[in-house]
Amino acid sequence: MPGAADAPPREPKDVIEHILERYHAVHRRELAELCPLARKVEGVHAAHPQRPVGIAALLTQMRAELEHHMMREEQMLFPTMLAGGGCTFATRRMRHEHDEHVEQLKALAQLTNDFTPPEDACRSWRALYEGCAKLAADLAAHIELENEVLFPAFEA
Ligand SMILES: [Fe+2]
Ligand SMILES: [Fe+2]
């Protein structure tokens, strides 16, 4: 559906398809680029007073935890939903993990001065913060779509 960014579909089957394409696949692709980029920026600018200390470790942790979370949605939760099953217990756990992702996004914003590079930042550093800001916006929208639209349709 064109222009679906601000008007995501409401039918569970379509919502799930949208989530997989627009969020799960995109997070995977972008985190695979952001993790090595973060390692590079931290390494090259080790002496810079405004360097984002620990950003590579944080992104690597987020990548691992998101991967695990998305896999469980893809392999267990979404198939159960598509089969018409009740999911209250599973969605409660997923909501709890979403809260943890939100905490990690807060840490990422704090570490990057709200995704604002210093004046003298190089291109890689700017690209890293731009990519992190995009990831943060996408992940927040992804969580909102699951918490507010998809999950409630399957909770008692
Ligand atoms: Fe998801
Ligand atoms: Fe999720």
Explain the overall architecture:
With 156 residues, this protein is mainly alpha-helical. The protein contains four helices and no strands. Helix 2 (55-82) runs antiparallel to helix 3. The mean pLDDT is 94.
List keywords for this structure.
156 residues, mainly alpha, binds fe (ii) ion
What would you say about this model in short?
The protein has helices at 12-44, 55-82, 88-111, 123-150. The protein has 156 residues and is mainly alpha-helical.
Shape category: elongated
| Helical proportion, percent range | over 70%
Rg over C-alpha atoms, rounded to the nearest angstrom: 17 Å
The helix/strand series, from N terminus to C terminus, equals: HHHH
Percent of sequence in beta strands: under 5%
**What's the total helix number?**
4
Major sheet attributes: none
How many strand elements?
A: 0
Residue runs with pLDDT of under 50 for 5 or more positions: none
Distance between the termini: 30 Å
- Bound ions, cofactors and other small molecules, one mention each: fe (ii) ion
Overall mean confidence score, pLDDT:
94
Secondary-structure content class: mainly alpha
Structurally, how many domains make up the residues?
Answer: 1
